[in-house]
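TODO from last week: model Carotenoid biosynthesis protein.
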Amino acid sequence: MDKNTTQAFPRNIFSNKVSLFKFIITIFHVVGLLGMAMPLLRPYFQFLTPFHLLLCTGLLFYFHKNWNLAFFLFIFLAFGLGYGSEVMGVQTGFPFGNYVYGPVLGFRLFEVPLLIGVNWLLLVYVSGEIFHRRISNDYLAAAAGATIMVMLDILIEPVAVKLDFWDWKDGIIPVSNFVGWFFVAFFIQLVYRKLSFIKSNPLSLYLLINLAAFFTLLNILLE
C-alpha cells in the first residue's frame, strides 16, 4: 500500500461516516414526520421527541473537532444562557412573552424542560457554523446566525403549540417572542464567535436543512 493510498483510506472512512450519518438524520426526520402526521401514532412520536433531539445532537457532535476548554465553555454558556432565558420567560414573561411548557419535552426544572437548553445549544451551533467563514465581522455573523434561528422558530412555533410542546397565553404567539429570540440568539452567537475552537462540521448545514424541511412540512400536514 503506497503513501497516497494510506492517506486516502482515512478520508474515505470519514466521508462514508458523514454519508451514513446524513442518511440516519434524514430517515429519522422522515419517520418522525410521518409519525407526527398520523393522529393514531402521534402520542408515541411525541414521547420520542426528546430522544430525537438528543440523537441529532449526538450525531452532530460526533464530527466536532477540537474538544478544547473553549468548546466546553461554549457548551456550558449556550446551554445556560438559552435555558436561563427560558426560565426567565416562563417566570416573568420577559423576554419572549407569556407561555408554559407541556409535558412532551421531558423533565422540567423551574418549569422549563432541560432539553430546551440542548435545543439552544444545537441551533446556535448549526446556524453559527454557516457564517463562521463567510462573514468575518463577529457582530454581523452573530446577527446573521440569530436571523436564521428566528426564521426557524417561525416554523417551529405553530407546530410546537399543536403538539403540546408549549402553550401561549390566549393561544396567540406574540411578536415579542421573535424579538426576544433574536436578541438572546444574537448574544449566544457572539459567544460562539468569540471563543476559540474549530467551527467546521460536515453535518451542521445538512441538519439545519432537515430541521427546516421537517417543520415546514409539519405546518402543512398538521393543518
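Done. The chain has a mean pLDDT of 93.
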